[in-house]
Amino acid sequence: MSTFKDHFSSASGRYAAFRPNYPATLYSWLAGLCAEHDTAWDCATGSGQATQGLAPHFRHVVATDASAEQIRHAMPHPGIDYRVAPAEASGLADHSADLITVAQAAHWFDLPRFYAEVARVLKPGGVIALWGYGRMVLPGELDAPFQRFYEEIVGPYWPPERALIDDAYKGLLFPFDEIAAPPFAIQVEWTLSRLVAYLSTWSAVKRYQGAQGHDPLPALAAELGPLWGAPDAALHLSWPLFVRVGH
Questions:
Q1: Strands (E), the chain
Q2: Whose C-alpha in 24, 28, 39, 235 is 20 to 30 A from the C-alpha of 51?
Q3: What averages of pLDDT result for each successive group of 10 residues across the chain (247 residues)?
Q4: Residue extents of the structural domains in the chain
Q5: Pick from 140, 143, 237: which is nearest to 188 by CA?
Q6: 3.40.50.150, 3.90.1720.10, 3.30.428.70, 3.40.30.10: which CATH number matches 9-246?
């Protein structure tokens, strides 16, 4: 029986266009932990944000997602094999993967079933890495209205699994020999309109729109606008990643 909770297929195009990419240093570090670099499995790839970063480091990358619509929007790459498959039944061969990655998605899984699949697919001594990011902190006076939006406006519309993100995966089941990760962060230079486009991919925003019948983002943009500066000003924004890695 599938346990897939599809919060993103309805906005797959926006997800592909507006979700941030992860730092290249993360992929280099993960590749350095692997004894071999034949096959990586990026599970719950979405539209392939993490997969593209893995491709330079592995001969073959298999990228799976339970959403056919997300896979349809993934960026093609000669070294990446995109497949529609749930996290708990990948279709990969036994003990075939040197690295298994899950970016911003492990909180949606049936973890005991997924970890059974990891044990089947991962090579002896292979590496599993789960990572994610929570709410960015906006600079200066911009952060207070943004925090209110996150907690009070769309906060009631987050799925319960979001609590694991807010806890930085500290309470997430992780039955592996853990490896301490150095600090990593997403760094971007975004205009206000680009930030709003990213926020439009949030599952809580989509659920708010469905429940309330209107979009909460124009009001947020109007509140942030006078504090942002010039409409086309690109501000440096950063979010730290939390990373759980193990053998």
A1: 39-43, 60-65, 80-84, 97-103, 122-132, 178-179, 185-190, 235-240, 242-246
A2: 235
A3: 45 65 96 98 92 96 94 91 96 98 94 97 98 93 97 95 93 95 95 95 94 98 96 92 97
A4: 9-246
A5: 237
A6: 3.40.50.150
